[in-house]
Amino acid sequence: MADSKKKIGTERIQNIVYGFKHSAILWAGIELSLFTKVSEGACTIQDIASACGLSPLNAERMVVACTALGLLEKKQGKYVNAADVEEYLVEGKPRYFGAWSLMGRADFSDWLNLCERLTSPQPPSVLGIYEKMGPEQHEMLTRAMFNVGLGAGHKLAKQFDFSNHKLVLDLGGGSGAYCVALCRRFPQLRAIVFDFPDVCRVTDELIADSGLSDRIKTNPGDFTRDRFLEGVDAIMLNGNLTQYGPDEVRVIARRAYQALPPGGVMHIIAENLNDDKTGPLIAATWSIHEALLGSKGRAHSDAEVTGYLEEAGFRDVAATEFVQNILQRVTGWK
After folding, report:
1. Is residue 296 a contact partner of residue 245, using CB atoms and an 8 Å limit?
2. Which of 196, 209, 304, 307 could form a disulfide with 300 if both were Cys (CB 3.0 to 4.6 A apart)?
3. pLDDT below 70 — which residues of the chain?
């Protein structure tokens, strides 16, 4: 009789162990402009070797590895980019994601010491390393986030009607990309990006490049400590929720509620956990990332974020999927 017991292998564990190698393959492909060259027509190993300045041997190694990872596809003997690679990793395209992807290398060595960080007796601070970043680090992060945020901002503009709002305050708005997308969609809307001074200097440039300096302004400061500006009727906290612990989020929600007029709205877009806190993996990863950064932040569940807004006084609070398995949007009204 055949053994009906399911055999347990090591493939899943090996793939997790090799995860950093897979990241390195992706980063090398971006740095070599491999995906851009493929998009431009380099479709054989010989073509890719010539276009990327690789030996035929190393070109074959890279192409095979990228194909095994699903970054490239082989069709009728020729290589093409996978659909998401073509959309996000080809230089010059509006949604180019390469600069953001390469940022993962900046803290790579820290991840190798995760156990040490988790057992450190050093207590976390509210923002950890974010408070200590220099101008160059802020600039790199802010510029890298622009295209990513612009795509998300366009998505928000389609999901939510801002036509009845006049002034939106973007807490920790970074590059200002959400505000740019919203102001392009809603001509009556103005916006303020509330972020650190070193960030706002770069944000002002990005806003000017977008031709919206007359409608989008920056407010340098720390929104966890400094006064919220008056006159806003919509407030956003997008993409940075995991930097804060529950106590800090409650304070932010209360201050937002106090700053808004009746009929005002608050949106929180974040990598939220499901209510059982079993995933998604991206949210769980961002959560543990905060241990490396020394902050009090962690990932929050949809139920927790809904609770923070309701405790502050917001009504009709609802959580909806924003980007499948990545981002949730929680919205509440005053």
Report:
1. yes
2. 304
3. 1-4
Q: What burial class does residue 173 get, using C-beta atoms within 10 Å of its C-beta: 0-12 exposed, 13-18 middle, 19+ buried?
A: buried
β pairing state of 78-81 and 72-75: antiparallel
Q: Is the pTM of this model over 0.70?
A: yes
38 burial class (0-12, 13-18, 19+ CB within 10 angstroms)? buried
Query: Please, what are the domains in the chain?
Result: 11-105 (1.10.10.10), 125-333 (3.40.50.150)
Q: Contact 193/218 with Cβ under 8 angstroms?
A: yes
Per-residue model confidence as pLDDT tens digits over 63-85? 999 999 999 999 999 999 999 99
pLDDT in tens, 192-204: 999 999 999 999 9
Chain-centre distance for alpha carbon 63: 28
The secondary structure of the chain, three-state, reads: CCCCCCCCCCHHHHHHHCHHHHHHHHHHHHHCCHHHHHHCCCCCHHHHHHHHCCCHHHHHHHHHHHHHCCCEEEECCEEEECHHHHHHCCCCCCCCCHHHHHHHHCCHHHHHCHHHHHCCCCCCECCHHHHHCCHHHHHHHHHHHHHHHHHHHHHHHHHCCCCCCCEEEEECCCCCHHHHHHHHHCCCCEEEEEECHHHHHHHHHHHHHCCCCCCEEEEECCCCCCCCCCCCCEEEEECCHHHCCHHHHHHHHHHHHHHCCCCCEEEEEECCECCCCCCCHHHHHHHHHHHHHCECCCCCEHHHHHHHHHHHCCEEEEEEEEECCCEEEEEEEC
Query: Chain centroid to CA 107: how far?
Result: 16
Alpha-carbon span 319 to 309, nearest angstrom: 11
Q: How far, rounded to the nearest angstrom, does the alpha carbon of residue 150 sit from its chain's CA centroid? A: 11
CB 242 within 8 Å of CB 304: no
Cis peptide before 280 (omega within 30 of 0): yes
